[in-house]
Prior knowledge:
Layout: H1 27-36, H2 40-61, H3 63-95, H4 100-152, H5 162-206, H6 210-254, H7 259-264, H8 268-320, H9 329-372, E1 388-396, E2 406-414, E3 418-423, H10 429-436, E4 444-449, E5 452-453, H11 459-463, E6 466-469, H12 480-485, H13 497-506, H14 508-513, H15 535-549, E7 553-557, H16 565-579, E8 588-592, E9 604-609, E10 612-617, H17 619-625, H18 628-646, H19 652-659
Parallel strand pairs: 3-8, 3-9, 6-7, 7-8
Antiparallel strand pairs: 1-2, 1-4, 4-5, 9-10
Helix pairs in contact: 1-6, 1-9, 2-3, 2-4, 2-5, 2-9, 3-4, 3-5, 3-9, 4-5, 4-9, 5-9, 6-8, 6-9, 8-9, 13-15, 17-18
The structure holds adenosine-5'-triphosphate.
Subcellular location: Cell membrane
InterPro entries: AAA+_ATPase, ABC1_TM_dom, ABC1_TM_sf, ABC_transporter-like_ATP-bd, ABC_transporter-like_CS, P-loop_NTPase, Type_1_exporter
Domain ABC transporter: 389-635
Amino acid sequence: MRRPAGTTQDTTDSPPLIGVENLKMPEWARVDERVAAAGFGQAVRALPTAVTVVVRLAWRTSPRLTLLAGFVHVVSGTVTAFGLLATANVFTALLQQGPTPERVLESLPAILVVTGSYAARAALDSAVAAVEGALRPRVTAAADDAVTAAVVRVGLIAFEDADFRELARQGARYGVRAIETSLRRLADLTSSAISLAAAMVTAGLLNPWLAPVLLLAAAADGWAAARVAKLNYRHYIDTVSRNIRKTVVEEVATWRTMALERHALTLQEPLLGEYRRISRSLVREEVRLAHRSNLVRTTGRAAAGAGTAVAYLVLGWLLYSGAMELALAGTAVLAMRTASTALSSTTRAVNSLYEDSFYIGFYNQLLAESRKRRPPATTLAAPADPAEIRLEGVTFTYPGRPSPALRDISLTIRRGEVVALVGENGSGKTTLGKLLTGLYPPDEGVVRWDGVDLAQADPATVHANIAVIAQEPAEWPMTAANNVTVGRLGRPDPDRRAWREAVGCSGADEVIDSLPAKENTVLSKKFDEGQDLSGGQWQRMGIARGIYRDASVLVADEPTAALDARAEARVFAGLQHASTSLRGGRRTTILVTHRLANIRSADRILVLEKGRLIEQGTHEELIRAGGLYHELYEIQARAYRASEAAIPQPRAEDAEEEVSPARTD
Ligand SMILES: Nc1ncnc2c1ncn2[C@@H]1O[C@H](COP(=O)(O)OP(=O)(O)OP(=O)(O)O)[C@@H](O)[C@H]1O
């Protein structure tokens, strides 16, 4: 990937364990790389968007608190400005001609105003803190809620896209944090901008020359702050891939699910080494960033110092030439100092907002992407118990994959059929199961249930009628009972018949019986007294959940891959029973399996090869056809025949003899 000049290579100093030197930068980060390269003008133009997001969120959260926050900030800034002007009056009264006691007496009202403004300012500061304290957590929670709700509602296929997953992670984490800090910056900006305006007006009233000179002194500070913000962002973009890699290595080095292989393969030290290498390279970048930021800040400060010197020279010249009275010099100095402080606070707030605006950009991008990836709102409902599932010319490609997982598939499945999907690894069986059930939309072609195009139907109405027993079932961190009933929340089952049938057909009853608190045992090691299960036990719980769901279309994807022979036989008998036990009819069952002996009695067998449907028929028809199914079946059957032949068959008299030594008589 071509990188803009001045950016660093995202590499570590030795070949990475992950296997690639440079991870591809996520799409969203590359979009924002262009934003990072933008000039200051563009940055200023980006501000209103960030401010709008924050204010809109605040308004949506609490219009009353938002108005109150705006009000107290404006009043607080105005009181400061008022105090400044009052101080000018004090100086004018004190430094005019005449006896000192009279001058002091004359300045008393102005001194009272100054004192009053300080007291008011202190009271307003507490009001600001109180209002902000009430508003900020609400806005942060609202931002968090918006982003979580947006991500939760995207279609399933979005989670197949690595760029979207990363955008979701970054947008939620940095975006929400940026909104929270922006709220504070916005408050700072309001009060410092008012103070600046007051100082400029005061200086301008004293002498029109003073105002531009004040700006000159503070502008350098502002430039430095803007530059540092950009450096920070550039750094973030440059290290994003490395940070992703670091997180992945950290996860595989510490996660419990990887622990067994990690130890068995003695990968702890290599992983630690990889982690340290990435960390070191990130630290080097951080240090380089700190040096560059420091240099920029020092340059800014030097320029600001020169600007201040010019301002004092101009003031001196104004006094020397008699363009300004000496009595006003004190006020001018005060205005200069106030303006300088206010301008650097203003520029700092503007720049922080500018920096935050990038992260708020991620946040907005995430909301927009999530909206785009949300299934379209529709009132079209899928039929609850379709008489026919039809695929017409269906092609599907996983996001980011160069070639389709399924190509031009056309087929029809009728209500109550038990259909087996067969084929070698990667031939597309699981993917076909997901398309049949509307979980993934096809890129080309159409999937219809009784003529209703699933891409046009409300996904909730489709999903309500499907049950999926996944190859690797989810390990829900809840009780064993809930691990089954979560299959259909709220299903009425007063006498627990459905529950008993589900755990009985799947063999989950044996699992539950072996648990210390039976069905009330929490299945997660994250909780005290929680229990974990073996792979096969989790699979039984998944099957029970699928059966308990009692849906009209059931997809079982390698349901018995991790089961022992006895459990497998029981599950297939259970699934057979489940296929005939749908309320008043037969359930449409789609079975994905490699163990061909289990599907001989299926109504139809579909054979896939490299994403294409190449054969279909009953077991006998496919065996007669002598194609791929016949070949695969023969390989498995031959293995059994060969192992049977290898076992010597005992003669009747041998058998007698073999047993006899054990006899005690
Ligand atoms: N989440 C995914 N992202 C990208 N590609 C995928 C994903 N899942 C599967 N694929 C690819 O799609 C193709 C079909 O995969 P699928 O899982 O449907 O095959 P399968 O027949 O079920 O395989 P197996 O018998 O190994 O379970 C394969 O080339 C696979 O690499």
